[in-house]
Amino acid sequence: MDDVLVTASLLFVAAAATAAVFNRDPARQAVVLSLLGLGLAVAFTVLQAPDVGLSQLGVGSALTPLMILLTVRKVRKVRRTEKGAGSGPGSGGGKRRR
Amino acid sequence: MSRRLRLGVLAAGLLATAALLAAAFLELPAFGGARHPYGDRAVEASLARHTANTVSAVNFDQRAFDTLGEETILFSAVLGTVVLLRQTRGEHREAPEPASVPPALRRYGLAALPVTLLTGLYVIAHGQLSPGGGFQGGVVVATAFHLLYVAVDYRALERVRPVGLYEIGDAAGEAAYVLLGAGGLLAGAAYLANVLPYGTFGTLASGGTVPLLNAAVGLEVSSAVVVLLAHFLRQALEIEGGGERE
């Protein structure tokens, strides 16, 4: 039973990590990274390291993806402003989402 | 250096690393074996100091000095982020407009907030007894506040989160760990030695200095994460301009 759980969680981690690498959109990557964090937390727990699993859950699947998402948002905002300033009003930007 | 030469150097480096890793893995003990010389000694030492969670006994008693280093890494990293993400010349702040949140998300978020907060505090307080401790619980406490951003909006989060106060909390947590270590010196033992009475095994007050060090780390980590996310949020939501370079 333990071996099945360990194998399943490791396979999930490998799949999620591969998906994170092949995903080219950083915002989607953050979501996949969050899933990867969850998979790693399960893997650590079934390998009897619940302390590490708990850290992984907090940092890997909540904190890091949130920081990536906020960074993506900032970068996109700066790019929109630059585009808008470069080619005149009305071209870039579009609707701003809050 | 030509492209070909660079690829050659890279290939040589990768092959050597792969060979060294393979050689090292071949020497490892088999997975899930019964012989754990370090583990046995760590468990014995943690039981002798009435700390039920051996991982906490290693982190906050047997290897407490290493944890001081880890705590300082987080402290300095957050300090660096605060400096890098400050508002610079040519940038100004714009208050973000209130966002509308689906009622179901709002209900779920507001219901989850107190539960998450309590879970975080529980994890910090029970570090000496069950898996978790200051690091893990601190992150949970900090994420609990940010449920307000998800469930209500940014202004609601700002209202319950005076960043200056959390900056003080960050520094106070770090200082508390250093000073608790110095307490060992005052008691005539080594720095960060576990000098307090060990208490009754399996109760909240067991483990000597372990719960106190956990509380210091919990304060430091939760404040540090709040400050870190506050600067990321401020950059993403409030600070405008600065795209142009002088």
Automatic annotation (TrEMBL), chain A:
Top-level division of the source organism's lineage: Bacteria
Keyword Cell membrane set for record: yes
Transmembrane segments: 6-23, 30-47, 53-72
Membrane protein topology class: Multi-pass membrane protein
KW Cell membrane (keyword) present: yes
MrpA C-terminal/MbhD domain span: 11-76
Lineage, uppermost ranks: Bacteria, Bacillati, Actinomycetota, Actinomycetes, Kitasatosporales
A GO CC annotation given for this chain: plasma membrane
The species this protein was found in: Streptomyces caatingaensis
This protein's name: MrpA C-terminal/MbhD domain-containing protein
TrEMBL record, chain B:
Signal sequence coordinates: 1-22
Membrane topology: Multi-pass membrane protein
Transmembrane segments: 72-88, 108-129, 135-154, 175-193, 213-233
Cell membrane found in the keyword field: yes
Annotated keywords: Cell membrane, Membrane, Signal, Transmembrane, Transmembrane helix
Domain Na+/H+ antiporter MnhB subunit-related protein intervals: 112-226
Keyword Transmembrane applies: yes
Superkingdom field: Bacteria
Cell compartments where the protein resides: Cell membrane
Recorded family membership: Belongs to the CPA3 antiporters (TC 2.A.63) subunit B family.
Protein name: Sodium:proton antiporter
Lineage: Bacteria, Bacillati, Actinomycetota, Actinomycetes, Kitasatosporales
